User: Fold this.
Amino acid sequence: MSFSNRVASIVTLTFTVAALIGFGTPGFAQEINRAINVPTALSVPQTPHMMPAIATPQSTDPVTTTAPESPESDAEQDGDTVAYGTLDAAVAAQPGPDAMNDELQCMAGAIYFEAKGEPLSGQLAVAEVILNRSKSGRFPKGVCSVVTQPGQFSFVRGGHVPDIAPNKQYRTAVAVARVALADAWDSPASDAMYFHARRSAPGWHRVQVAAIGNHLFYR
Assistant:
């Protein structure tokens, strides 16, 4: 073999051995197995609008709001009707004798002359008799016509209710008349058409419906 050929063979062998040694080094193997130019995945923080919606069960029951109860009083408003705790409260709540119309004057006069010394329930029962008569069809229509009907109420003079001086009993009679006309309290003699004093004995054959104070009431 010539000298040049030997030199070429040695150079070739040297590069071959170097290549084998390089492939066997750990560092080079790690570089081969490592991904090159591959960006690592970035973790994206979740913002509130990216959070998955969590469905909450919806109640189908109606929502009930309970208002605080107000303390009870003698008078409670319910629409256009005023309900009173007692008859005394109903009478006390009425305005005075000012601005009275004819119907109220006739009713108050009858209560005053017939029952001013009676309990309030007895005064209301007298007013109930007058109202029942005015609606019955057997007596004149209207409160004043019933009160001034001849032969019915002895206090009537010349077809008129006498004038009454203002006093406490008359103011009470006016208030009871207002209660009766407004139907603001139920009378224990709600269907009565007649009444008389206990001391009287008219000899009626009628059904008694109430006995209040010094009066007996019949239908």
